[in-house]
Amino acid sequence: MPQSNRGSLWDSLSATGHRPNRFLWGADAGVTLGDLARGSSLGGRLEELRDRSVLVMTKDQLTAALAFIELDGIARRLVLCPPDLPFEHLPSVIETAEVDALVSDGSALGAVVSGVGCVVTCTPRIAPVDSERSGHHQTEWILLTSGTTGLPKMVVHTLASLAGAIKESKTQRTPVIWSTFYDIRRFGGLQIFLRAILGGGSLVLSSAQESTGDFLARAGTHGVTHISGTPSHWRGALMGSSARKIAPQYVRMSGEIADQPILDSLRAIYREAMIAHAFASTEAGVAFEVGDGLMGFPASLIGQPCAIVELKVEDRSLRIRSARTATRYMGSASEPLADKDGFVDTRDMVELRGDRYYFVGRRDGVINVGGLKVHPEEVEAVINRHPRVQMSLVKARKNPFTGAVVVAEVVVRFEPGHNVSTAEIEALKSEILEICHRALAPHKVPALIRFVPSLEVAPSGKLARFNA
Question: Is pLDDT above 60 for 234?
Fold first, then answer.
């Protein structure tokens, strides 16, 4: 499918107007887009970055956001470096993307700086600029996938494919103020950044250095109206009083399966907001959004002819074809991004029940119990139905007889100061197991449940999954 034409981010920013009333807020500083229109965050060195392949490697999200706005259309290529990228992977990223310039906020490591010829510092202190701001490139945006092992894949997008799901800006009656738990150097966060910039709104950026409570308090102070994150982000926020520090009009989840308990919990606390969950992948882009308050998605979305986004299910795996799909993997000429018909295999497995499809897990995350398959996410969704369960993580434990068994770590709600007895703990485990026995095949029921105070969430916002 052909991609729609779009100008650069700078052109879009100029067209939306009302820039003095639009902000980018970081944890420690804020910038009005009006100031950026009159100056530069790059110290007057924008021209040095023209036509280059630029690695944007900053500790602070605000400086990364400013660099994206200034460099789209100017740079030949923008390589978005997530802050948790292992240092040992950087040389490969630099070589594969032919990086010949680095934009940093001063936090880049010396060994990286020494390998790149042009180094420019980005800062929220906007300085006057005299250089020509118009660009002629359809800049390539390179996003790194968030795998758990090995080198990340480098996915090549354009602004047109990244912004395919975003409507052109229109005059807003009330200011839209976006925020997101995501880092904007990943696909989910970048989508929210682009929605704010292209849609005429403002954006409150999160920081890895602040707690969930501090971030949401700051978002509430700025009057956030629209906010996104993974279900794990939201479960963390709901564990205390943090979630009540904002009063959004729109709440969006993506990146993980949104089960019914988390949808119901968000509806209970944000009664006036639209609660939505979306499906997207770094390779295939945004596929759809569901706003009916139910987990899964309507079966009617599958097989619609001539749809903007075409969906099909093959071998139980959801596949997507649209103009929002990335163009290719960089440095992976032997690995096609899509099949011969243009469909991307998301590797997300779905199951049809009645008139609705439900996500059951990732193809590569299956636990093999004596030759029978178990999707951890399917079991977690059942465990999470218990009213006292906050979140859960299901994984495999090696077993000499079946190869593996299913075990679960569970975070439960207890009243503050309540001294929990052994009998109460055992009763709660029995209740959870009873729910599992009613809803799951015997090989999917956890052989062991362990209560834990918290679960690790990866920098991508998803539950960190490691086998026992």
Answer: yes
